[in-house]
Here is the input.
Amino acid sequence: QRRLVESGGGLSQTGDSLRLSCAISGGTFGGYVTAWFRQAPGKEREFVAAINWDGDSTYYADFAKGRFTISRDNTQNTVYLQMNSLKPEDTAIYLCAVDRKRSWVNSGSAYATRYETWGQGTQVTVSS
Here is the structure.
């Protein structure tokens, strides 16, 4: 059974950086897109970034472009989200997710319904 475990969240200040990790285990993930989403209190789940299996194709939400970088190390079965220049509006639970089927990164990667396996999330809090 697939399992995703996020880590790396915490309390930061405006302008700080954090690197989140998503450890993937328990199943076949080759060829699947992995994405990061976030959910703030009282708001809908929001797409952040996605990456293909090979790590050579990525897609970002507009707010993430230039500040966040998604990457992966398949030897470690881990996907990362490097977040720089953090803002208070980045405060949310950050979740990683794996696609329902082997696919490639495109604008459809932004839809949560595309993803079958989700982690529990890691809290990121950015103070002003």
